[in-house]
Specification:
The protein is built from 7 helices and 2 strands. The chain has about 250 residues and is mainly α. It has one domain. α3 crosses α4. The chain starts with a helix and ends with a helix.
């Protein structure tokens, strides 16, 4: 009797851990490589233990059929990725924002090695990643991730395959909306850069012997930094709101 209870507990706990672990591996901030692997694993295990009494009524019973057990684990892993991939896409839209700002400021060639991505990224991209990650924890958005995992058991009961058409439609909507949001956020920098280019063109016509770009480039960098200082609060809030909103959207 005790063996059966232990086996069922381990099986149900593994189902919870599969969904939470897959979700935590994709959620922004929680999946940051600055958080060492054992720390993320410990966090996922701790959350799984805490949520087990709440989620236990939704879990299926243990089965002796190995193929059924593997199928349930695969479904849980898929659901964990589904409820977190939207937030990750919005977070990665900062790549587009940072690249646009870098190009408009004249610092497009300046790159920085980001250890979290293990690749060269634009300076503004790395800065936005750090600021947004900090804002996610400050605004307690990471708690919404855990709440989203709990609510997902009502939208995606264990053992039931999600509708592929709904998943593809959701991912398409998030990708489209993330690009639109990125260009909306970048619009002040595009407008200011266009105005400065028009001004430099007029100046070049008035003073043909003047090295226009030699004079304009420092001013352009200064103006872009000043614009970023003004709009950084709105920029980060828009991204954080989109990340928090997509968790609930994925459960609809």
């Amino acid at each position: 009797m005790l063996t059966a209870i232990t086996t069922e507990f381990v099986f149900q706990f593994m189902l919870i851990f599969a969904r939470i672990g897959a979700a935590f591996s994709m959620f922004p901030a929680l999946s940051d490589r600055n958080i060492f692997m054992r720390g993320r694993l410990t966090c996922a295990l701790a959350v799984s233990f805490v949520l087990y009494p709440l989620i236990k009524p939704y879990l299926p019973k243990y089965s002796e059929n190995f193929s059924i057990l593997v199928g349930l684990l695969v479904i849980e892993l898929m659901v964990g990725v589904i409820i977190s991939i939207g937030a990750k896409i919005y977070f990665w839209s900062l790549h587009t924002v940072g690249q646009i700002i870098s190009m408009q400021s004249g610092l497009g060639a300046a790159s920085f090695f980001d250890p979290t991505q293990r690749s060269q990224v634009a300076i503004f991209t790395s800065f936005l990643f750090i600021i947004t990650t900090t804002a996610i924890f400050i605004t307690n958005t990471h708690y919404l991730f855990i709440q989203g995992v709990i609510d997902s058991y009502q939208s995606f009961p264990p053992g039931e395959w999600p509708e592929i058409s709904d998943i593809s439609q959701f991912v398409t909507h998030v990708i489209n909306d993330s690009f639109i949001l990125a260009f909306k956020i970048s619009s002040p920098f595009l407008v200011i850069s266009l105005a400065m280019l028009v001004g430099s063109g007029v100046l070049a016509r008035l003073m043909p012997n003047l090295q226009v770009f030699f004079v304009i480039t420092p001013a352009q960098i200064l103006v872009i930094f000043g614009t970023l200082y003004i709009v950084i609060n709105v920029l980060v809030n828009k991204i954080v709101d989109a990340i928090s909103g997509t968790v609930n959207l994925s459960l609809v």
